[in-house]
Design goal:
This protein has three domains: about 160 residues, NAD(P)-binding Rossmann-like Domain (Rossmann fold, 3-Layer(aba) Sandwich); about 160 residues, Dihydrodipicolinate Reductase, domain 2 (2-Layer Sandwich); about 80 residues, Alpha-Beta Plaits. The longest helix is centred in the last third of the chain and has 21 residues. The chain contains 14 helices and 17 strands. Strands 7, 8, 9, 10, 11, 12, 13, 14, 15, 16 and 17 form an eleven-stranded mixed sheet that branches. With about 425 residues, the chain is α/β, with parallel strands linked by helices. The radius of gyration is 24 Å and the shape is elongated. It is about 35% helix and about 25% strand. The structure holds NADP nicotinamide-adenine-dinucleotide phosphate and L-homoserine (HSE). The site of NADP nicotinamide-adenine-dinucleotide phosphate (NAP) has 28 residues, from helix 1.
Length: about 425
Amino acid sequence: MSTQVVRVGMIGLGTVGTGVVKILQQRAEMLAHQLGARIEIGGVAVRDTGKLRDVALPNGVVTNDPASLVRRGDLDIVIELMGGTSDAKRHVLDAIEHGKHIVTANKALIALEGRDVFAAAYRKGVGVYLEASVAGGIPIIKALHEGLAANEIEGIYGILNGTCNYILTQMTEHGQPFADALADAQRLGYAEADPTFDVDGFDTAHKIAILSSLAYGFNVNIEEVYVEGIRRIGTADIQYAHELGYTMKLLAISKRKGGSLNIRVHPVLVPESSVLANVKGAFNAVAVIGDAVGPTLFYGKGAGMMPTASAVVADLLDAARTVVSKAPAEIPVCYHPERAITVPIESMDSTVSRYYLRLQVLDQPGVLAEITAILGRHEISVAAIIQKEPHCEGSVPLVLLTHDAMEKSLQSARREIDALDCMRDESVCIRVETDV
Ligand code: NAP
Ligand code: HSE
C-alpha cells in the first residue's frame, strides 16, 4: 500500500459534512485502495466548536477559524460545505489563492459566483469540483461533462429540489399541510439553512443554471431565469389537478433552440402517467435530451446526508487523483475565463404552454360567459372546465384547462379576469407540461 497522503480541510460539519466524515472513516481502506493514497482529514472548520457532533474527530482537528484553515500549507484540498455565498466565496477564493483544489456542494456559490471562482482556479491551476451541487447523489454533472459529451443537448427537465418534491408528495398523498411538510423536510436535513431558497424556487434555479451552462457550454446568467416557487400551491389545486389526471411538481425546464435558450422554474402539472409524476419524496430526476443519444433519465436521492456525501466524496477522489498525478485541472468551457460566452435567455412572455386556471367566482348567471369572452379575445382556447358546488358564501371554484397559449396573452387575460366584479380572490395559474 502506498504511503502517500492527500490532506483535506473541510469547512462545515453539518448535514453534508457529517456524512462526508462518516464515509471517509467507514470506507478509508476501500478509498485508499482505489486512489493508491490515503485521504486524511487535516482540519474541519465550524461555527460552534462546542456543539455535540455525530462523528468523532481527533483532538485539534476541529476549529472555528476557516480563514486560517484554508491557508494551511499542509492541505491539498478544501471541501466547502458551509453554504451561503459571501463568506463561502471569500474562503474559497483564499483557498484557491493558497493552491488548494476545491470541492463544493454549494449551488448558490457556483450559480452566482462561478465565473469568479473558476477564473481564480484557472489562474492558480487548481480544480473546482461541484458534483454535489446539483441533484444530491445523482452523478449528473459527470454525465453531462463526460458521458453525454458527444451530444448537442436539446433540453433538460428536472425535479431538482428534494424539499419541494417532499412537500408536494406529502400534500398530494397524505393531505399534509404545507408548513408541517416543510418542518419535516427541515428535520430530515433536506432544506437549506434558509428554506425560502427551496420553497421559492431559487435553489432549483441555481441548479438548472449550472446544468444548462455545463450542458450547452454557454454561461447562463441566473438573473434571467424565470423563477416561481410552490408557496401558493394549496391542497385544493392538487386535488383538482388529480381530477383532471395531473400531478403537481416543481420543475426546472431548460430548452435550447439554435442559439436561444428558454430556462425557467415553476410549478407544473404533469400527466399522472408520466415518469416525472412518479418521482416522489426527496428523490430527484433529471431528463436530458441529446441529439445523438435521444432522451435519457437520471434518478436518485436529491438531498440528505448520505446521498449528498456520496457525491462530495466522489469529487474528493477526483481532486485527490489530480493531487497524486499532478495532472492539470480542467476548467469547464462555460466557466472558462477566456472561452466562456454568455447567451441571453428568452423572455418568459414568449413561452408557449397549456395552463390550469382556478378562479374563485360568484355563482351567478353570465360569469362563465364573461370569463370565456376574455380568454377568447386573447386567442386562448379552453380545453376543459370543472365547476364545483358552492361551499362558501355563494362563490364557487371554477377550474379551466387551456390549449397552448402564449404566456403574454395568458397573463393579460388573467389581469382582466382578476379585475372582474365576480372574482372573489386572485386567480391561481399553473402551467401544464405534457412533453415529459
Ligand atoms: P448545515 O447542516 O447548515 O451545515 C453548515 C455547516 O457549516 C455547519 O457545520 C456550520 O457550523 C458550518 N458553518 C456555517 N457558517 C460557518 C462559518 N462562518 N464558519 C465556520 N463554519 C460555518 O448545511 P448542509 O445542509 O450540510 O449544507 C451545506 C452545503 O451543502 C450548502 O451549500 C447546501 O446548499 C449544500 N447541499 C446540501 C444538501 C442537503 O441535503 N443538506 C444537499 C446538496 C447540497 P456549526 O455546525 O457549528 O453550526
Ligand atoms: N435543499 C436542497 C434540496 C438540498 O432540498 O434539494 C439539495 O441540494
